[in-house]
Design goal:
cell membrane, globular, mainly alpha, single chain, 446 residues
């Protein structure tokens, strides 16, 4: 019976991922409908904690965007990238990584991709190299960022004081090393641009050749008056979340009792409460101080993307967790011994699920509780955490498609067999290295 149920699960995820947008969420609900009324499976609780976290964090990021704060951050990143074009294969990915680590979203990379492509092409460096690893870096930044939904979900799942600090302490250096090795893996990838047949053919067009020979600095975009203030408020919010995670004694506590979404069984505030209150308070402060209207926030592209994220997590995680709960004994019996003896093998399962789900937060919420049920220690789960970034394997994620479209030289592409595209080598290398380093750091620090 489990194989019929598993077939339904995979079928719904595959169909939903092809539909894009909220497709993953609504097909997840179709799968849940089949589980409930055909297989008579008992549903688990819906993933309200992750949904609330996504709503709070993305609203705050959208406020930062509407107030001009993201434009200010992008302008700083652009200056860094343009400052040393010869080393763009290394500078661009790390600039992207730290920017996304700070902002908590990979979508900010869209603003930098055309800059990376332009600077590398005019320096006659194959754009595929910095573009591919920069996209991977934008994803890896989410596993360790205190402002990302995936990291917040991981903190809630681990559920012990100081979990956020442990995640940052292991995942950030592990992912940085992963990005570095990823840069090395693409440093000589493909033919040099001037020897690339596609580029040579394009250069036969006089207008194209002229555009490739013109060295024009990016235009300085005027910033909104409150842009820097918004970034400062956002920074304070990040610091408060980190402090709350590092020093739980500073956070209000109450009488022990039944566990709720807002308060843990020991009376301490849950991370859902802490993150939601701090981020949305920061959002209010940005709107009031920078005079950014609520209407501007709701029109921001980050805010409009929130609905898709929430619906996707709602449907696919509820379906997946119901499947996992109903077949818990079978799954533990099949995987328990292997995972106990070789904890790293669980990373393969997480990686595969991440390929199908196209969502770090959804993959985290679905797979990490299974890791806990299988008896993996927190150090191992944190080391495996970067595996949720495998959404690059099937080239349908927006950041990959954007990088391909922004590369006017044609060097960044999807291969004949679909999966042999520009992002798989740096992605697999960076994530593999990050996981390996994570296990090493976990054994030393936790």
């Amino acid at each position: 019976m489990i194989w019929f149920e598993f077939t339904v699960l995979i079928a719904m995820i595959l169909i939903g991922s092809q539909m894009k947008g909220i497709g993953l969420g609504v097909m997840g609900m179709v799968g849940l409908f089949i589980f409930l009324f055909v297989f008579k499976m008992k549903p688990t609780d819906p993933p309200l904690d992750v949904m609330l976290i996504i709503m709070a964090i993305v609203t705050t990021a959208a406020t930062l965007q509407a107030s001009g704060g993201l434009d200010y951050l992008v302008s700083l990143a652009e200056k860094i990238i343009r400052s040393n074009p010869s080393n763009i294969t290394f500078i661009a990915p790390f600039t992207v990584y730290f920017l996304c680590l700070f902002a908590g979203t990979a979508h900010i990379v869209y603003s930098l991709l055309p800059i990376i492509s332009e600077v590398s092409a005019k320096k006659r460096i194959r754009p595929e190299r910095p573009l591919s690893i920069s996209v991977i870096a934008s994803h890896l930044a989410l596993t360790g960022s205190p402002m990302s939904a995936a990291t917040a979900a991981m903190v809630v799942i681990l559920g012990y004081p100081g979990a956020l600090v442990d995640i940052m302490m292991i995942c950030i250096p592990a992912c940085i090393i992963g990005v570095l090795i990823g840069c090395l893996s693409v440093f000589k990838k493909g033919a040099e641009l001037e020897k690339d047949p596609i580029f040579i053919e394009k250069m036969k067009d006089p207008e194209y050749a002229k555009s490739m020979g013109t060295d024009v600095e990016g235009e300085e975009k005027p910033l909104k008056p409150g842009a820097k203030t918004a970034v400062l408020i956002f920074t304070v919010a990040i610091l408060l979340i980190v402090i709350a995670g590092a020093f739980p004694n500073l956070v209000p506590s109450f009488e022990p009792g039944a566990k709720t979404l807002a308060v843990a069984a020991d009376g301490s505030l849950s991370m859902v409460t802490i993150i939601s209150v701090i981020t949305l308070t920061a959002s209010a402060a940005m709107m009031l101080i920078t005079k950014t209207s609520a209407a501007e926030v709701t029109k921001a592209t980050l805010f409009t993307s929130m609905a898709s994220a929430v619906v996707s997590v709602f449907g696919v995680v509820w379906m997946s967790s119901t499947f996992m709960y109903s077949n818990n004994d079978i799954i533990q019996g099949a995987l328990g011994g292997i995972v106990t003896d070789y904890p790293w093998t669980f990373a393969i399962a997480v990686f595969i699920m991440g390929v199908l789900m196209f969502s770090q937060a959804a993959t985290t919420k679905t797979m990490m509780p299974l890791g806990i049920a299988l008896g993996l220690p927190p150090s191992a789960l944190i080391a495996i955490f970067p595996a949720v970034n495998s959404d690059f394997v099937l080239p349908g994620y927006p950041t990959l498609l954007a990088a391909i479209n922004f590369d006017r030289t044609g060097s960044t592409k999807i291969g004949k067999y679909v999966v042999n595209h520009s992002f798989n080598v740096p992605g697999v290398v960076a994530i593999g290295v990050a996981i390996a380093v994570g296990f090493l750091l976990g054994s030393l620090l936790l």
